[in-house]
Amino acid sequence: APNGSAVAANDAPTPCLRILIAEDNTTNQKLLVQMLGHLGYTATAVGDGTEVLEALRQSSYDVVLMDVQMPNMDGLEATRQIRQEWSSTDAPIIIGLTGHASIEAQTDCLVAGMNDCLAKPVKLEVLSTAIRDAFPVSDSRDIVPSPKDEAIAPAVLNRLMIEQLQLAGGQQAEAFVIDMIENYFSESEKLVQAIDQAIAYSDFEQLQHAAHSLRGMSSHLGAIDLAQICEQIEFLDPYEDVATAIALFHQLRHEQKRFVLALRQEQDAARTSMSAADAAEASNQNGTSRNGTSAQVEEVVES
Fold first, then answer.
1. pLDDT digits (tens, 9 = 90+) for 271-302
2. Which residues sit opposite 22 in a β-bridge?
3. Containing H/E element for 2?
């Protein structure tokens, strides 16, 4: 069975949809599961197109959020196989997720058989709209406020994406942000090492895959320059001088350090906010306790 992670729906909207996420990056998996959980949906995540087919053969799903670029079997091939194997009445709605916002990339998704295609990083309200458009229902809840388009400190970190994480985290916003950033530190360092090794061995296939994964997960946390450098590496011509790849890698390392520093500041801010909230809660509890004690004393005195 495919490895999966799930989040139970709270006040699940009607209809109650079964959603499968196909995404090879664990950080992006976790974020999408959390975002869908915030919207009230239950989601399960798998890592590639092969696992998508296996999951669909074992259970029925209403929606598949399909990353286009995955190892073993990519999203386009998985979509084509789904359209061949399942009838139109039994097949799920397939919403593509691509790091390439070009018209050509979106056309490829639709030609393969996807119902829709969203550019990564996916914003919460865009995801909500895509699902609702596929399954229109009457729901008066204002699930997602429309955020402003401006980015704060665009050279390093787009705080709008941190705010999206906080929104997805709900009542556990700060804890979710801290956890996502910590997970990013671990996963991104592995990818940076993979890029370094791929350049050393002139393995451009591995180089493109690692750069694509790092670009996607970095974009979800608000990286600007780092994501752009990853994109340059991803589309590097294999026949170019290796010195170009090495130069880009040095830029990537430099920008990664700046981005990590910015993320650590976000973690510190989240921890400060959590500490303040805990202190306020403790103060309220102490106040309630004192009021109760005073009432008991007054009752004893009066008696």
1. 998 888 776 666 666 665 555 555 554 554 45
2. 46, 66
3. none
Could you tell me whether strands 93-98 and 116-119 are parallel, antiparallel, or unpaired per DSSP bridges?
parallel
Mean pLDDT across 5-9: 42
Task: Tokens for 226, please give them.
Answer: 């780092």
Query: What global pTM score does this model have?
Result: 0.64
Radius of gyration of the chain (CA): 23
CATH hierarchy code of domain 6-146:
3.40.50.2300
Asked whether residue 163 carries a pLDDT value surpassing 70, the answer given is yes
Q: pLDDT grade, residue 147 (50/70/90)?
A: very low
List the chain domain ranges: 6-146, 150-294
Question: What is the torsion angle, in degrees rounded to the nearest 10, for the CA atoms of residue 52, residue 178, residue 276 and residue 284?
Answer: 30
Q: Phi, psi (5° rounding) for residue 93?
A: -70, 135
* Single-letter code of the amino acid located at 120: K
Q: How far apart are the first and last CA of the chain?
A: 69
Structure tokens at 171: 């009542």
The fold of 150-294 is Four Helix Bundle (Hemerythrin (Met), subunit A) (1.20.120)
3-state DSSP call for residue 28? helix
